[in-house]
Prior knowledge:
Elements lengths: L3 H11 L4 H22 L13 H38 L10 H25 L1 H11 L14 H18 L4 H18 L17 H6 L4 H4 L9 H6 L5 H4 L20 H6 L13
Helix pairs in contact: 1-2, 1-7, 2-7, 3-6, 4-5, 4-6, 4-7
Bound molecules: zinc ion (ZN).
Zinc ion binds next to helix 4 and helix 5.
Amino acid sequence: MLVATPFLIYVLISNGYSVAITTYVVAVGVGLVFWVMEWLVPFKEGWNHSHGDISNDIISGVVAYVILPIFLKPFFIALLAGGAAWLSVQWGGTIWPSDWPIVFQLIFLLIMGDAGRYWGHRLAHEVPFLWNFHAVHHSAKRLYWWNATRQHPVDKTWFTFTEMLFPVLLGADGIVLSMYFGVTVVCGFSQHCNINLKLGPLYWFFNVVDLHRWHHSRAIGESNNNYGNNLIIFDRLFGTYYHPERQTTSNRQVEEIGLINRNYPQHYLGQLIAPFKKGLDKEDRE
Length: 286
Ligand SMILES: [Zn+2]
């Protein structure tokens, strides 16, 4: 899926299909594959059933991943236009290596996207102001394919900014961004989906399935790890790679997930205003 999804996007857009429609249709298709896999090979059978969270996750997903991006992309391009132009002048032309084969451009983009996003995510856990908003994403009490999209709009804005910082400054554009989105969809859904898979050598490079499940652990010592977006290489580089069942011979699996505060609001409006209420998630940082 990591290979087929960006390849399919490349073929469709090259043949004249709309970028927006192609990426959203492929995203839904990828999500449905994970949904079927959850029923075939569940990690926890109980997580396949609603915990009263579906309406919140649908609203949150539509706001953060359909409505918000319409405004975010032009906003960040405008915001970073000065920096991108300055870098381009220093370089003596467009920095983005658009003459490279598309596969190498995609790999370069994955590394550049994660270079900023790793620190964006890590700071969201380590800076209290940012954690107030990111706590919404960690409030899920089960993991299933769709709650990848549970994100506060402020948190989503911060994540998108840090993820797109280097790609936009370097001048990445066009079809490679859509292919990158395809990889992100596969990694994002895989990180949250309730499937029991062991992915062997993929764990060297990609932040997939159980790696991100540990990131949602209720134990802070476990969850403050595995910050990568698509890749795990920056976690390996900066000492936040955490994968007990692979680093040791034990078969220990993540137990409880979510916030320490079990009274955290679970409906959309409550989560929208929760970051502005003093002390609501304080105990999660202690
Ligand atoms: Zn997180």
